[in-house]
Each structure stands twice: as C-alpha cells, then as structure tokens.
Design a protein that fits this description.
The chain is α+β, with helices and mostly antiparallel strands and about 375 residues long. It has 13 helices and ten strands. It has three domains: about 90 residues, Arc Repressor Mutant, subunit A, CATH 1.10.10.10; about 80 residues; about 200 residues, Regulatory factor, effector binding domain (Multidrug-efflux Transporter 1 Regulator Bmrr, Chain A). About 25% of the residues are buried.
C-alpha cells in the first residue's frame, strides 16, 4: 500500500503545523535546519508541494497578497483540520515504518563481477569520499542549530548513525577488495600468456599443455539454441561458485577465465560457410590445477540449490591436451571469422605441411554484452599435426 503522504509532503505539512508560513519562509527554515540532508525534498519543489497539498484540501491560504495575487512566495498557508488529522496519521505510520534495504550500491555490487576490479575499487572509493562529505555536512548543520530539541537530536543522531554505518560498510568492502587484489591470484591469461595473447597479424604455432576445464556439451546454432545459453550460464555460475569456495576453504584465489569453445562438424567447411546448425560444441572455462572433481560437484550442487538450470547437471571437469596448435587473434564479429578460417585451412596449413588434429578451439576474450561486434577479440586455435 503506498504511503498516504510522501516524505516531502509530510515534511512540508509538519512545518506548516508548527506555524503558518509562505513558500519563502519554508525554504529558509528548510535550509537553516538542514532538512535536505535527511529527507528527499527537492530545491524547486516547495511551491509544487504547496499546490498539491492545497489541492487535496490539507492546507489553505491564510492571507492573500494585496498587490500581486499570483505571487505564491508571499501567500501564507496554514493546515486545515483534514491536514492536521492526516499529518498525525502519517507521522504515526512513519515512526513505525522500517527503511527498506534497497540501496543502489547493492545493485552495483551484484553486477560488479562484470567490471574490471580496479573500476569496482574506484567506484567504492568515490562512494566513501562522498559519504564522508555528507557526514561532515550533517554535523555542520547540527552544530549550527544547537542546542536542539529532543526530536531534532534524534533526527541528527539517526542520520549520523546511518552515514557512519554506510561508511564503515563501504570502507570494509573496499578493504576486502584491495586485499583480494593484492593476493597472489592465479590468472590463466597471465600464467599462460603465450596461449592467450597471440598476434592478430599472422598465425603462430604454440604448444598447448594439459589444461583443466569445466565443460558442457551441446549442438546447434549458438545464436538460437536455448541449450547453448543455458550451458554458458551454468558454466559461469559454477566457475564463480568454485572461485569463492576456493578462496574461503583453501585461501587460494583465481580469476575466472574467459569462455572457450571446442567446435566440431562432420564437414569442416561448415565453419567457413557458417552453417551453424551443423555445429557441435563443448563450451568450457579453464580451472586451476587445484580444483578437484569433488569441488566441482559441490559447486554444482550449491548452484542448483539457488537456480533452476538443467545444464548444471551436465557440467563436468575435463582435462585437455591439444599439443601443437596454430592460432591467431581475430578482431571483429564472430560471423566475420570465415575468411581467416579459410586462409588457415586452405593456405597456411597446406603451405606448412600440416593438417587437423582436433577440434577447432575458440577463446572469447571480450564480454559480448559490453563490446561492439567490430571490437570483439577471439582467439582462433586449431590443433595440428604433420601431414
């Protein structure tokens, strides 16, 4: 049920209950008492609120300006009997009402895994500085009005307590993040830089050792397959669950690796022609070597208890040794990979006496949700052997 009066309406009505006032006087009292530090009352909303309250019959004009009848700044308002009763009812309700925990920063924290950690730290640092400035403003407003009546003391005590609590939470969260960033955190892109930072100019040959992944199998067009979407969501859910469990139980942290995919088809030309319906795939995310099968199963169970995703049951831990591979960095849309793959299949491999020796492998370095198609970075990797 919506409140019978908004916070701003109730504040203005309360000030008029103290004594009849015109708009200018209300603005002066609001500024002197620092009312805007503890309630949502806009700088340009006083006359709008007066009109609204008058329209509901909660206040009425006590005097009419003699010279300028339209000059609202000099129209003095007083509370009507109906306004007095509604103000009392709304005040009783406000005294008992709980503040909902819906701070926007919580949405930011929920989305923070999608940002670089330095961006998260910078945002929290700005928040902490703003909280401290706001606390200083509240304390200055308080000091400028002392001695205060009991009700005003309670208001400022509450404001300070909330700001102090928010500051403490922000500082603790920032400290934990800074500590986490300073840990020796495993990052496969750094540990295996030769595999995850190829040139975009030409193909290079690399030797890929045994690596471990969590993986889900499927087939069909990744742009339209619900199974593909569910598989990717399941992999990231389990990957982050493993990350947090590893940090908590083993005190070993790691950066969740990029999404990777093994792609296969009965006819390899399906990749060049982009016949996506003929593709079969294994989507994967790399894991540190200390992640065990038991940890994966526990992470899957934990994730399944929080979200219904049938692909979670298909997540498994695999080891993959690709050996000798040819790879290149592709920049652009996934659908523009055809010419590069055609060059690999029909020029580079024959010219170097090589042929296929495993599934086509792609590593998706960009976040497709936040990157323009023309700027997507994808590693195209092909296991090979001598003809």
């Amino acid at each position: 049920m919506p409140p019978i009066l908004t916070d701003a309406e109730l504040t203005v009505l309360g000030l008029l209950l103290e004594q009849p006032r015109h708009g200018y006087e209300l603005e002066r009292v609001i500024e002197e008492r620092g009312v805007r530090t503890w309630t949502a009352l806009g700088f340009s909303s006083i006359y709008y609120l007066l009109d609204k309250l008058a329209g509901r019959g909660l206040i009425e004009a006590a005097t009419t300006p003699a010279e300028r009848p339209s000059a609202k700044s000099r129209a003095t308002y007083r509370v009507t009997a109906a306004g007095r009763d509604l103000c009392a009812e709304a005040t009783r309700d406000a005294l008992a009402a709980l503040t909902p925990v819906r701070s926007r920063v919580l949405v930011g924290m929920a989305n923070s895994p999608g940002l670089p950690e330095e961006d998260v730290a910078a945002g929290l640092s700005r928040r902490l500085a703003a909280l401290r400035d706001q606390l200083a403003e509240v304390r200055a407003a308080r000091a400028g009005q002392e001695p205060l009546p009991t009700a005003a003391v309670a208001i400022f005590d509450y404001c300070e307590a909330m700001l102090l609590a928010d500051s403490a939470w922000t500082e603790a969260t920032l400290g934990a993040l800074t500590k986490e960033n300073s840990m020796d955190k495993y990052d496969i892109k750094k540990a295996r830089r030769e595999l995850y930072a190829p040139s975009a100019k030409d193909f290079s040959v690399v030797d890929v050792p045994e690596l471990r992944y969590i993986a889900v199998d499927g087939h069909g067009d990744p742009n339209t397959s619900e199974a593909y979407t569910a598989a990717v969501e399941a992999l990231f859910t389990v990957a982050y669950t493993l990350k947090f469990a590893s940090k908590k139980t083993l005190d070993r942290d790691f950066v969740v690796g990029p999404l990777e995919g093994l792609w296969r088809a009965d006819d390899p030309t399906a990749f060049v022609t982009r016949d996506k319906g003929a593709w079969a795939w294994t989507m994967m995310i790399s894991q540190p070597d200390w992640i065990t099968e038991d940890m994966v199963r526990a992470a899957v169970t934990s994730a399944a208890g929080k979200k219904d995703n049938p692909a979670l049951a298909d997540v498994r831990l695999i080891s993959l040794t690709e050996g000798r591979c040819v790879q290149i960095l592709h920049i652009g849309s996934y659908d523009d990979e055809g010419p590069t793959l055609d060059r690999l299949h029909h020029r580079y491999l024959p010219e170097h006496g090589l042929t296929f020796n495993g599934d086509h492998h792609e590593v998706y370095l960009s976040d497709v949700r936040r990157t323009e198609p023309a700027k997507l970075k994808t590693i195209l990797r092909q296991p090979v052997k001598a003809v």
